[in-house]
Amino acid sequence: MSETSLCPTPRTRIRRHPERGSYETAEIHAILDEAYLCTVAFHDGETAHAIPTACWREGSHLYIHGSNGSRLLRALADGAPSCVSVTHLDGLVFARSAFHHSMNYRSVALYGRFEAVQGEAKRRAISAFMAHLTPERADQIRAADEQELAATTVLRIAIDEAVAKRRSGPPVERAGDEALPVWSGVVPLKLTRGEPVPAPPQEVENA
Amino acid sequence: MSETSLCPTPRTRIRRHPERGSYETAEIHAILDEAYLCTVAFHDGETAHAIPTACWREGSHLYIHGSNGSRLLRALADGAPSCVSVTHLDGLVFARSAFHHSMNYRSVALYGRFEAVQGEAKRRAISAFMAHLTPERADQIRAADEQELAATTVLRIAIDEAVAKRRSGPPVERAGDEALPVWSGVVPLKLTRGEPVPAPPQEVENA
Fold it and tell me: Region A66-77: what's the mean pLDDT?
């Protein structure tokens, strides 16, 4: 394992389409950094769960947060083995046959256990989240006070057992199909920002 | 349970922010129908996995498919208890305090076990997938031949233990924060289609 590449493990080794896999930390980090949401899977002893939640990366850890009352966070804080999935859908790949249709995407699968982030590190982590989410406003918003911090759980998972997987480019047709009279190519997809909608003045929570 | 609403179960009952939950099948179906991808969680006896894969709905089932060699599909075809997650991120909710930031989203959590779809039903399911993915081309593309069908696994899961969860609208501030001199509101997010990119003529797979 180099400093810039992770070791494949039995859980992260890509068996099908190995050319679509990458263990390069730069690529894994870039995919995570573009994400606002991840989906966390864990098993509670009875059943598997898949729960979407906000995420952000700092250094070689991925962070999540939420209310102390969250079932997800309580289960993960207890050290449940977890798998975090992040996926960006980049395009629909339209071939001339049904079988050769595909999707362009970039995804990360990350295995490990979360740990709680406490004290000053928790405060710094939340600041980093705001800098990730809204860099131009991060210095202007009111920071969390002691009560808000105490009500919030922050967890992190080391990015050391992870793999990126991605497909890009045009469809690959079966030889002979290229003459079929149907359009083929890629329809790109992108999560785009719309026009900001200012909040009305009256939205405050009940005291 | 009415014909248009599912019963909450211990796995799908929303405890925090119950006002954000819905068991209405129309709402659950609408969220699933807008999705190209779901994330499937299951436990293989040793570890939890979260794997993104294409999905489509027909009636009261959600379908996935892939190569017979896929580890995901083989584990699920064996009847592993699963949780399917679909999430649409609709906006970033910027409050005047760090604590009151949020996200607008629509998500579904669906629990159950997948079952294999065989024979003529498999052929019909793949046609339905093409109609979902590319309705205007579905009648023009070459349908899967026997060999392609035989190489493909199609699975489905009943949508009978599921819940939708969503947030929409502006931030909710702490009373007193509304005077802080920082922008607040929602930045909408939407997965949008870009300009189609026609395939170059030479992309055919090796025979």
Answer: 91
ipTM summary value? 0.94
Q: CA of A198 to nearest chain B CA: how many angstroms apart?
A: 4
Interface contact B204, partner A, CB < 8 A: yes
Closest Cα of chain B to A3: distance in Å? Answer: 26
Per cent of chain A over pLDDT 90 is: 86
CB half-sphere exposure, B2, CA atoms < 13 A: 6
How many whole angstroms from its chain centre is CA A74? Answer: 20
The verdict on a CB contact (< 8 Å) between B16 and A67 is yes
Name the token pair of B194: 């870009």
Cβ-based contacts under 8 A for chains A and B: 284
Distance, in Å, from the CA atom of A160 to the CA atom of B122, rounded to the nearest integer, reads 39
Q: How does residue A178 score in pLDDT terms, banded at 50, 70 and 90?
A: confident
Contacts of A184 in chain B (CB under 8 A): 198-199
Q: What distance in Å separates the CA atoms of residue A138 and residue B96, rounded to the nearest whole number? A: 10
Q: Is residue A125 within a helix (H) or strand (E), and if so which, with residue range?
A: helix A119-133
Q: Which residues pair with A50 in a beta bridge?
A: A41
Kindly state the DSSP code that residue B97 receives in the 8-state scheme. Answer: B
Percent of chain B beyond pLDDT 70?
Answer: 96
In three-state secondary structure terms, A58 is strand
Structure pTM?
Answer: 0.94
Please count the other Cβ atoms lying within 10 Å of the Cβ belonging to residue B4: 10
Q: How far apart are CA A42 and CA A200, in angstroms?
A: 39
To test the contact with chain B by mutation, choose from A71, A90, A183, A206 the residue with the greatest count of B C-beta atoms within 10 A, namely: A183
